[in-house]
Design goal:
The chain has about 80 residues and is of the alpha+beta class. The protein has three helices and three strands, in the order E-E-E-H-H-H. Helix 2 runs antiparallel to helix 3. This is ribonucleoside-diphosphate reductase.
Length: about 80
């Protein structure tokens, strides 16, 4: 289980599990429940790269980031740490 502390969004953290580069589970702590449950449903079963490609850079209103964008930051950090091992 990986935990990512978000920045600049309503959700406080994102918890996720990855197995063989596939997102097995994701949980957003805080934020807009309906939207985040929808994101969870859409990304589980997808590869890390697919999700980064689809969600990276999505803003939230006037904010330059969003919960989906923060998830891509978490996934990019996961990939960076994985490649360093």
């Amino acid at each position: 289980m990986y935990v990512f502390k978000t920045s600049g969004v309503c959700s406080k953290e994102i918890r996720f599990e990855i197995e063989d580069d596939i997102i097995k589970s994701v949980e957003f702590v805080g934020g807009c429940p309906g939207n985040l449950i929808g994101i969870k449903s859409l990304v589980e079963g997808s590869t890390v790269d697919e999700v980064i490609e689809k969600l990276k850079g999505i803003p939230c209103g006037v904010k330059s980031t969003s919960c989906p964008d923060q998830f891509t930051k978490a996934l990019e950090l996961y990939k960076k740490k994985r490649n360093e091992q």
